[in-house]
C-alpha cells in the first residue's frame, strides 16, 4: 500500500475511457472498510456516469455562475471561484464522478450546537478515511482521482439535484489519467513531528 500512497496524484486531465462497474464497486467497497467514529459509517456514495454525470456537471457550473454574481455562500472565498470553474472542466473530462454524502449531517452553512459540531467533525474524519481508501484503491487499478471540495460554491444547487438533505462532503473524480504530475513537495518530517 505504500506504493499506492507514493504514486497517488491529484489528476486534473482524464482520458475518455470508461471504468467498469466491477472496479467502481471495488473502489466503493474499500471505502466501506474505513474506520468510523462509533462505527456510525456515515457515508453514502452516488455514482454519476454518462448523461447523469453531464447533468451533475451542468448543475455545478450553474451554481458557480450564480455564486460568482451573488457571493452568497462563500463571500470571503470569491478569489477561489476561477479554480472552481476549472474544477468544472475536470469534472467534464472524468468519466466517473462519485458524490460522497454524510448521512448523519445536514448543510454545513447552518449553525449547530457545540456537541453536534464535535459529532460532525468525527463523521467528517470518518468520511475522509473512506475517501482516502477509495483514492488508494483507484490508484492500485492504475486510475487517477481528484478529491473535489469546490462543490461548496454550488452547494444548494447540487443538493437539490441529488435530492438529499444529507451533507454533501464532496465529489471524487475517477478516470484514466491524461497527465503525469510530478510529486508535490511535502514538509520535512522533522518539521511536523514532535516527540515527548
UniProtKB/TrEMBL annotation:
It comes from [Ruminococcus] torques. Keywords: Ligase. It comes from the Bacteria. Its EC number is 6.3.2.31. This is Coenzyme F420:L-glutamate ligase. GO terms for molecular function: coenzyme F420-0:L-glutamate ligase activity; oxidoreductase activity. The keyword Ligase applies. The gene is fbiB. InterPro entries: NAD(P)H_nitroreductase (IPR052530), Nitroreductase (IPR029479), Nitroreductase-like (IPR000415). Pfam families: Nitroreductase. Residues 5-175 form the Nitroreductase domain.
Amino acid at each position: 500500500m505504500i506504493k499506492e500512497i507514493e504514486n497517488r496524484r491529484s489528476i486534473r486531465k482524464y482520458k475518455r475511457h470508461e471504468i467498469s462497474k466491477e472496479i467502481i464497486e471495488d473502489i466503493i467497497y474499500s471505502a466501506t472498510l474505513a474506520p468510523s467514529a462509533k462505527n456510525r459509517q456515515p457515508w453514502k456514495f452516488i455514482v454519476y456516469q454518462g448523461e447523469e454525470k453531464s447533468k451533475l456537471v451542468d448543475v455545478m457550473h450553474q451554481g458557480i455562475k450564480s455564486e460568482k454574481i451573488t457571493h452568497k455562500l462563500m463571500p470571503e472565498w470569491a478569489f477561489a471561484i476561477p479554480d472552481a470553474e476549472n474544477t468544472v472542466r475536470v469534472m467534464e473530462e472524468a468519466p466517473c464522478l462519485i458524490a460522497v454524502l454524510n448521512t448523519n449531517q445536514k448543510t454545513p452553512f447552518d449553525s449547530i450546537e457545540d456537541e453536534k459540531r464535535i459529532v460532525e467533525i468525527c463523521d467528517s474524519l470518518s468520511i475522509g478515511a473512506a475517501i482516502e481508501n477509495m483514492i488508494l484503491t483507484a490508484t492500485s487499478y492504475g486510475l487517477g482521482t481528484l478529491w473535489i471540495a469546490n462543490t461548496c460554491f454550488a452547494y444548494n444547487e447540487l443538493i437539490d439535484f441529488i435530492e438529499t438533505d444529507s451533507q454533501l462532503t464532496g465529489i471524487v473524480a475517477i478516470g484514466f489519467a491524461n497527465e503525469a504530475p510530478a510529486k508535490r513537495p511535502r514538509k520535512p518530517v522533522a518539521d511536523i513531528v514532535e516527540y515527548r
